[in-house]
Specification:
about 230 residues, cytoplasm, mainly alpha, 9 helices, microtubule
Length: about 230
């Protein structure tokens, strides 16, 4: 991760205390950029105002575009992470409107409006960097997020629990497909249930794909294709 930008100490019109406050806001902005880059890299989209790169959107979580990290659990984590960033975007929008209405607002006002993110962003960044550096895959993402959500900071715990809730949605869909229909929706080998070796595996799989599951005429193959709808 690149170093965080700092406000120059040599600006004569800024008091040292103001320089320190602005540097804290630079750290928030730097963390936000790293979050959005992580989301963009592993999902191909992010809710920002900037236009997409001229090369077009990246593939959704493919191993060749995301440093070896891929899968529906990672995409779900990014979806939850993007949702967590929405209050920060809203706070910036409100600040912009307030400064347009009153250009004499002080730096301390910025610090007051964004102070709630000073503990949140570094804590969530630890989770993101753990997933990136350790190449945490599949259901292990659930364990990692849960472990870091057990801390004593309520804003951090609440944010990570919301991210975990999105990731659990993938797990519940995989469990439902397996327990109700005997299907393994596990294209990226993330589920804790694996297909064992079987001599009749190919014919059995073909029967599953062709079988009508009595779900509005859906076959096993069509239900597997619904995996693309997972977050």
């Amino acid at each position: 991760m690149s170093p965080c930008p700092q406000v120059s100490q040599d600006l004569p019109f800024l008091h040292p205390s103001e320089t320190s406050v602005l540097s804290r806001q630079c750290k928030l902005g730097s963390d936000y950029i790293h979050f959005t880059e992580f989301i963009q890299q592993h999902t191909g989209h992010v809710h920002i105002q900037d236009q997409a790169p001229s090369g077009g959107p990246q593939s959704s979580g493919g191993p060749h575009t995301s440093g070896g990290l891929h899968g529906v659990y990672l995409r779900a984590f990014c979806t939850g992470l993007d949702s967590m960033l929405q209050p920060y975007r809203q706070a910036l929008l409100e600040l912009e409107q307030e400064f347009l209405a009153d250009p004499h607002l002080t730096i301390s006002h910025i610090n007051y409006k964004l102070d709630q993110f000073q503990l949140l962003f570094p804590s969530v960044m630890v989770v993101v960097e753990a997933i990136r550096s350790q190449k945490i895959h599949g259901c292990q993402i659930l364990e990692t997020v849960h472990k870091h959500s057990c801390g004593g900071l309520p804003p951090v715990r609440t944010a990570l629990e919301k991210i975990l809730c999105v990731c659990h949605g993938v797990l519940y869909k995989q469990l439902a497909a397996w327990m109700l229909h005997g299907l393994l929706l596990d294209q990226h080998e993330e589920f804790f249930i694996r297909q064992g070796p079987s001599g009749a595996g190919s014919s059995t799989n073909q029967d599953e794909e062709d079988e009508d599951l009595c779900l509005g005429g859906l076959s096993g193959k069509q239900l597997r294709e619904l995996q693309d709808l997972l977050p």
